[in-house]
Amino acid sequence: MAPGLGPTAAYTKVPRAVCTLLVMVGAVASVPLVWAVGTLLKEFMAFPSLAGLFLLLGVVRKVTAGDFSGKGTRYSVEHPTAGGRIGVM
Predict the structure, then answer these.
(1) Helices (H) and strands (E) in the chain, counts
(2) pLDDT tens across 29-78, in order?
């Protein structure tokens, strides 16, 4: 393993400390508070994905323009055991 990339590297100390702190707080906090914090943290994780999806909406439309036009593209796939080609829409 490269020097400085092991489990005791400096960049792992902060997340470990935060995780340890949250475990200790969760052990003594009320259940509704723990669920509320969990929900809030899940929403924080979803935000960058939603922002990226919104920012890449134009690219997604260009890439998938033919997929939903109703015309469809016919692909042919070689099946290894059937010994023939399988048409996939």
Answers:
(1) 3, 2
(2) 999 998 998 899 899 999 998 899 899 888 878 877 766 666 655 655 66
